[in-house]
Amino acid sequence: MRTETAQLGIAGGGLMGCSIAAAFLRVRIPVILYDISPDARAAAPGRLAEELAAQLAGNLAPAETDRREALTRAGALLTVTGNEADLDRAETVIETIVEKPKIKRKFYRTFDSFCTGKKLLLSNTSTIRITELAAGLAETENLLPDRFCGFHFFHPVRKRSLVEIIRGAETSDETIRRAEELARLIEKEPIVVRDGPGFLVNRLLNPYLEEAMTLLLEGVPLERIEELCRRFGMEMGPFRIMDEIGLDVTMHSGWTFFKAFPQYIQSGELLPALIDSGRLGRKNGRGFKLYAGRGNWSDEGDPDPALAPLIGELRSKRRGTPPVRSGAGFPLGEDLPLAGESISDEILTLRIFSSILTEARRALADGIIGDAAEADRALTRGLGFPAAKGGIFPWAESYGIEKLRKICRGFEALNPKYAWG
Q1: pTM of the model
Q2: H/E/C letters for each residue in the chain?
Q3: 152 given a catalytic annotation
Q4: What is the pLDDT of residue 70?
Q5: Topology classification of domain 201-418
Q6: Catalytic residue among 152, 155, 167, 203
């Protein structure tokens, strides 16, 4: 594959598809961007040029010269199409369509009918098992399971240096090599992981988001949770992340974890309730927060006074659960509240980040990654975990492994996900 000159195909012209396209246009790789929706096709050039300008500028406020260069480059190297057959001109196609297996497989079958030769097909899926998706390729002629793998980018693409490459059961070594080469071509760092629920990065992201939502339903104020996470060093608080991803997308991803780990999910009613109330996140201006400029990603958002009654209604359905308090041997003291609005800042912070730690330990035990350093790299370069802390395992070492083990034993009364294993 002559990646320096070959055209790249991208299926899906939404936020992530345009951001990925911009990454390739930035290094002057021609892109064929396909989307079935006329509205998405109409919006794609402007959205893509804006993203490309930001990538060229290296910041969130590109200068006018960068905008002009982005428009010129996009105009010269970009083809936007509603015809799947146009993707046949590309040697490699990255699929970024909606996170539903049936829709993805339908695209694979239709695209295969237009192919005139074998293609390298990469999926930007964030949670669906690659082996499951590859099963739909068994009946095709040109899109083959051994030439298929996960190629998962992280939002915002311009600020995340990592690309997660997921090996399915039939993915060949050559496909992995070519995917790694493609990531490096756009100056991204590839990390190869084994197939599994949420792969690695989203498997580590899920406890961050899930525990924040659980705390919210316990009565801890949203802004307090966000502030403590930022004070810890996270680039974004959990609610800001969900608003940027989209609450609907977050919910669809969450189903994967609920099916894989049903005993861990405690906030499953929250996102459906928010979505039913018309909140999708930044993309429609309302999520956990309110956003005046939907496309202004630097906007932190404003508090939504209408959120409190909705949370209160959900909380009222949870009444009757006795408060959980620390017992003898808990390192931070006895008879301390471990749940609810009266918990200390330290316990709140430990609940969130210990849940990431125990999930990272399980991912390592499951063979998703080869060593702890890969989890730390995924967190710091894919999820905005504070680089100064080195990752979740160095943070645990710094805090004290034995102390954390005892703390997690106390937290097991709240959720079995804290089991040390």
Answers
A1: 0.87
A2: CCCCCCCEEEECCCHHHHHHHHHHHHCCCCEEEECCCHHHHHHHHHHHHHHHHHHHHCCCCCCHHHHHHHHHHHHHHEEEECCHHHHHHCCEEEECCCCCHHHHHHHHHHHHHHCCCCCEEEECCCCCCHHHHHHHHCCCCCCCHHHEEEEECCCCHHHCCEEEEEECCCCCHHHHHHHHHHHHHCCCEEEEEECCCCCCHHHHHHHHHHHHHHHHHHCCCHHHHHHHHHHHCCCCCHHHHHHHHCHHHHHHHHHHHHHHCCCCCCCCCHHHHHHHCCCCEHHHCECCEECCCCCCCCCCCEECCCHHHHHHHHHHCCCCCCCCECCCCCCCCCCCECCCCCCCHHHHHHHHHHHHHHHHHHHHHCCCCCCHHHHHHHHHHHCCCCHHHCCHHHHHHHHCHHHHHHHHHHHCCCCHHHCCC
A3: yes
A4: 65
A5: N-(1-d-carboxylethyl)-l-norvaline Dehydrogenase; domain 2 (1.10.1040)
A6: 152
